């Protein structure tokens, strides 16, 4: 069996096609969607992610602001800026690029963002709402993954779903979304005993580990849907995922590639969340 390739670039393009029209309709009513991206430090990967987010905003007709700080900036200066952005009517979404330097309390920074502008969905209030099944903002990466299932017509009800990784950004919200969609969910992590036992019975396998080609063909149940969230840079500079794509695509029924899978969908869902935030402010006016 050769798996169907779930093309993130194509799906992202399809979804983004409607964003510009919605942005212009909002602008006509005085609420052009606006995203502020805060970057602290000089992490090269973070710089690329921030640039991509700002470019995506421009393409979709959004207003965006990029606020950059040197690595040794005081946390208070960043908190003050967030307070300013919270009060700025031109900004509907605020994103602080992670990771933050070690002298920051990242949780305190995320909690400082107004929940109604927390387009990453990391604020405790939004995490709680997601847990209750009434999300205000769904974290962008797992939100993008759910769009693959929706687009491919994959019904999750009653399926065995296994998520490898339990981070607040990917693994935990992913598990919650799969659960809400009716799957029976297992979350595996670095202390899981007998990972193979779990992955081999997964109808849907999501890998969010951060280890190149960690998921091998023998770990995958024939016919499974495999979603690769990982982004790893190989010594030569090439990107690869957490899944051994070439081998696993011969076993799975559907698979996301890296690059060109989950990555483009993450930014797309950030745009979707920002649009929704702007639309909600209009509803309140
Ligand atoms: P993280 O480091 O916070 O979490 C990694 C998880 O993997 C942990 O929960 C850990 O328990 C688990 N893990 C580590 N070793 C393991 C092992 N041997 N067996 C089982 N589980 C193990 O990482 P994260 O932020 O969740 O990101 C995961 C990957 O996804 C990274 O490669 C990251 O770059 C990528 N990522 C991609 C996107 C995207 O848009 N495509 C977005 C966010 C993260």
Write down the secondary-structure element order. Answer: EHHEHEHEHHHEHEHEEEEHEH
CATH topology of the largest domain: Rossmann fold
**For the largest beta sheet, what order do the strands appear in spatially?**
1-11-8-7-5-6
Report, as a whole number of angstroms, the end-to-end distance. Answer: 54 Å
- According to DSSP, the number of beta strands is 11
What best-fitting shape do the alpha-carbon axes yield?
A: globular
Arithmetic mean of pLDDT: 97
What is bound: which ligands? Answer: nicotinamide-adenine-dinucleotide
Low-confidence stretches: none
Biggest sheet: strands, sense, closure? 6 strands, parallel
User: How many structurally independent domains?
Assistant: 2
Which structural class is indicated by helix and strand composition? alpha/beta
Would you mind describing this structure in some detail?
The structure is a single chain. The protein has about 280 residues and is of the alpha/beta class. The protein folds into 2 domains: about 90 residues, Rossmann fold (3-Layer(aba) Sandwich), CATH 3.40.50.10860; about 120 residues, NAD(P)-binding Rossmann-like Domain (Rossmann fold), CATH 3.40.50. Helices cover about 40% and strands about 15% of the residues. It contains 11 helices and 11 strands. The strands form 3 sheets. The chain has a 6-stranded parallel sheet with strand order 1-11-8-7-5-6. It has a 3-stranded parallel sheet with strand order 3-2-4, with helices on both faces. α7 packs parallel to α8 and α7 crosses α11. The chain is globular and about 50 Å long. The N and C termini lie far apart (about 55 Å). The mean pLDDT is about 95. It binds nicotinamide-adenine-dinucleotide. The site of nicotinamide-adenine-dinucleotide has 23 residues, from α11. Nicotinamide-adenine-dinucleotide binds next to α11.
